[in-house]
Amino acid sequence: MLLRREGFSKANVLSGALGLIIIAFYALAYVRMTSRANAVAQSPLLNSLSILAFSSYLIFGFAFLAFMLYSILYAFIPKRKHYDFIIIHGAGLLGGERVTPLLQRRIEKAVQAWRPGMRIIASGGQGADEKVSEARAIANFLYEHTVIPHDAILLEERSTTTRENLLYSKELGEKLVENPRFLFVTNGYHVFRTSAYARSVGMKGDGLGCTTARYYIPSAFIREFVAVCVRWKWLFIVYYAIIILGLLISYL
């Protein structure tokens, strides 16, 4: 269902890949705790791999749980009633020119938050496999399905990443309003990382998360969690360095 509605991409097969990893982990756990455990314990290589696997399960399991809880609780944080700009974060397009159901939910959430006097920034560049920019696709949807004035819709068509969405939208807003406040709209699972990027570029504002279709939630949370781990990769590098150092010392 995910691939049919949202289109095929590497990110959209992440939930299946994680399923295979979990199966491999339980297979290793079975070997470790059965009659084959002695053979594993007597092999430094197999024993080390086993310890690394269980350590990975521990740290990534707790980190993923914390990430999900924050993403859920963030939705209950009170928001201001007025902002100068509402940023709609782009996403991949269907057929290279139409918004996906996921992106449509972002647009609809932004429209709900919009008030006269605010301006909407449709943010997203054009991918190699897209016929129009994501910003243009968002704007076209707003033109066709909402009553928001055309002059209240701005396009930011340079960005290719979440951070660039915010940075270039901030630059656009600052050309029009002094010390603007922004409301950036994306999916609930995406708000945590987007908020971190907003702080890093000095943006004043808040995040607003929209709901995500149930069929998309597993893949979405996994993809976002991977991106968060990459952003704070040095924490994990230090964690594994300590474990590997401990293993080396234990075998000396």
From TrEMBL:
GO terms under cellular component: plasma membrane
Protein name from the UniProt record: DUF218 domain-containing protein
InterPro entries: Cell_Envelope_Assoc (IPR051599), DUF218 (IPR003848), Rossmann-like_a/b/a_fold (IPR014729)
Keywords noted in UniProt: Membrane, Transmembrane, Transmembrane helix
Pfam families: DUF218 (PF02698)
Family matches, as PANTHER family: INNER MEMBRANE PROTEIN, PROBABLE PERMEASE, MEMBRANE PROTEIN
Keyword set includes Membrane: yes
Annotated TM spans: 12-31, 51-77, 232-251
Every DUF218 domain range: 84-226
GO BP annotations, alphabetical order: Gram-negative-bacterium-type cell wall biogenesis; peptidoglycan metabolic process
